[in-house]
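[worker-b] picked up task from shared queue
[worker-b] task type: protein-ligand structure
[worker-b] ligand name resolved to zinc ion; SMILES cross-checked against name lookup, match
[worker-b] sequence length check passed
[worker-b] input payload:
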Amino acid sequence: MSAAALPVCRSCGAPLTTTFVDLGETPLANSYVTAEDVAQGRERRFPLHARVCGKCFLVQVDDPVEPEAIFSDYAYFSSISDSWVEHARRYAEAMIARFRLGPHSLVVEIASNDGYLLQHFLAAGVPALGVEPAANVAAAAVAKGVPTEVAFFGRVTAERLAARGIHADLIAANNVLAHVPDIRDFLAGFATLLAAEGVATFEFPHLLNLIRDVQFDTIYHEHFSYLSLIAVEAAFAATGLRAFDVEALPTHGGSLRLYACRADAGHRETERLAALRATERGAGLDRLDAYRGFAPRVEAVKRDFLAFLAAARADGKRVAAYGAAAKGNTFLNVCGVGAADIDCVFDRSPAKQGKLLPGSHIPILSPERLAEARPDYLVVLPWNLIDEIRDQTQAIAAWGGRWVVALPRLRVLAP
Ligand SMILES: [Zn+2]
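[worker-b] inference finished, payload out:
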C-alpha cells in the first residue's frame, strides 16, 4: 500500500501507520444469516483491521461499511436485558442525586434506544429527550412515553436542538462513543447542546482492559473506536470539552464512565481522573510499543483454541458453544472455526434461533435443546457472562460436560 493510500485517524486526521491487529476479512458481526443466504452467496465480508494513531493514540478500525447499513435497521432493544435495565436505573438514581436534577432540568440521551434509561428519569419527574437514529426503535420509546428525536447525533443535530432552546443539564452517551464514525463531529455536538454547567457522561469499554485481557473479540466493524482516556481527552480538547471525573465499571469486561463538561464550566477535576491518567501512562498507552505487542498475543489465543478443538475431535468429543453475540462471531471467524468444529451454538434470543452465525455458519439453537445435543464441551463465547451462563447451563454436569472459555487464555471448567 502506498503512503497516499493510508487511512487517516478518524479523530485527529493523522495518517495511520501502525497496525494494532489485522483480523482479516469477516462478515458484520451482527449479520446473522439463513442457509439460503449462504447458498445464494449473499454474505459479504469486509476487512477488519485495527490501527492505532501515533499522534492521539486512538485505536480504530477502517470503515469500509457505510454506517447506515449497520444502524438504520438496528434491531437491538436494550430493554431485553434485565441487568442492563437495572444498570440504567442505578445510573439515573446516581445522576439525579449528584447533580440535583429535578423538574427544572433536562436530560438528553444519545442513542436512547427504546427509552430503557430515560424512563427512570421521567418516573422521577425529570424531563427527558431521547435522540435515536433507528426509527423503529425510537417508535418503541415514544410508545412508552419517552419523547424521542429520530436523528444521528452530531454538530448539526445539536445546533438544530439548541435553536429550539434545548440545553441539557445532563447528556448520557453510554456505549455509543465507540460506535460513532466521526468522533469529532459527534463530540462537537455536546459542547453545543450542554447548558453552561451541564454534564455529559460517556461509558465505553476501556482499551486498557482490552489489551490486558486480549479481548480481540470485542473488535468488530460496528465498533469504530477502542477508547483510552488519553485518546478521548485529545478529542475533548479539540471540541470544547474537558473531563473532570471518571469511574471504573465492570460492564463489558471493564468500562469507564467519564464525566465531561464544557471547557469553560466550573466542575473541579477529581483525583481519580488524575490517577487514571497516570495508570494509562504507566501502562505505556502514550507510546506505540504498548500497542505493537498485541497481535502476537491474539495469535497465541487462537493457536491454543485450535489445539483444544483438534484434541477434542481426536478424542471423539462433542463441542458446542453458548451465546450467539457479536464478540463470539469475531472470535470464531478470526480462528477460522466453522460448523465442522463446533456443532451448534445455543442462544436465548428467539430472533436468532434457526439462523446461522455469520461467517462460521454454525446453527443457532434454543438452550432447551442442550440435553438433546449433550455436548462434552460448551464453549462460552461471551466470557464476560461466564458465571451467569454457567448457572443457566448446569444441566451439562449430568453427562460430565465442561465449560470452555478461550480468553484471556484457554480454561476448561468442571462443574
Ligand atoms: Zn489521531
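[worker-b] attaching auto-annotations
[worker-b] The pocket of zinc ion is lined by residues 9, 11-12, 14, 53, 55-56, 58 (CB under 6 Å).
[worker-b] releasing lock
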